[in-house]
Amino acid sequence: MGNAATRPDFWETAAGVAVARFRLAATVRRWDRGRDAWADAYTSFYTVWTWRSLAANVAGSVSLGEPLVVHGTLRVREREWDRERERERDRPPQGDRPLQGEGEGGWGGAAPPPAPGGESGGGAHQPRRWVTAEIDAVAVGHDLTRGTSAFRRVSQAKPLLNTPTGATSP
């Protein structure tokens, strides 16, 4: 659960598969006994990936700042940006290898975070390293504890077949 931190980016792959991606901000709240009130603790950010009909529906339904509930698989990966080679890659834990399909590149245009201590790097070449948290979503919806929503079922157009010949109708 959290809030949409970005508007969904929507595109189709070369194979025609719909993809949408957005950032989700989830803030932990704690009870502050001293003030006798709820207080925000820290915020975690997740990149949420959606595919096919879910991607199209997310693109048409989710706006910046809206409270959301996301259900899916969490994937935490260490990433590395090699400035000399100008590319990004996954860094599997020692002794492991990347998961299938998670080799070179693939971050989708997000810039790596700045190197600690500024851009100079302080001498020898040091690749930038950081950790990403991504969710491969199977369901996304509005958090109805924080507002209302009106559901509209999406119908998929199917071609009508003529009974005798099996040809599609004009």
How would you describe what is shown here?
Strand 3 and strand 4 (37-51) form a beta hairpin. It contains 1 helix and 7 strands; from the N terminus they run ββββαβββ. 9% of the residues are buried. It has 170 residues and is mostly beta strands. The longest helix is centred in the first third of the chain and has 10 residues, at 52-61. The chain is flat and about 65 Å long. A 5-stranded mixed beta barrel has the order 1-3-4-7-5.
The SSE string, one letter per element, is: EEEEHEEE
Placed side by side, the strands forming the largest sheet appear as 1-3-4-7-5
Give the N-terminus to C-terminus distance in angstroms: 46 Å
Oligomer: single chain
Structural class: mainly beta
Radius of gyration: 21 Å
Mean pLDDT: 80
The count of helical stretches stands at 1
- Please report the total strand number as a whole number: 7
Poorly predicted ranges (pLDDT <50, ≥5 residues)? 92-111
Name the shape in a single word.
flat
Relative helix content: under 10%
Biggest beta-sheet profile: 5 strands, mixed, barrel
Strand portion: 35-45%
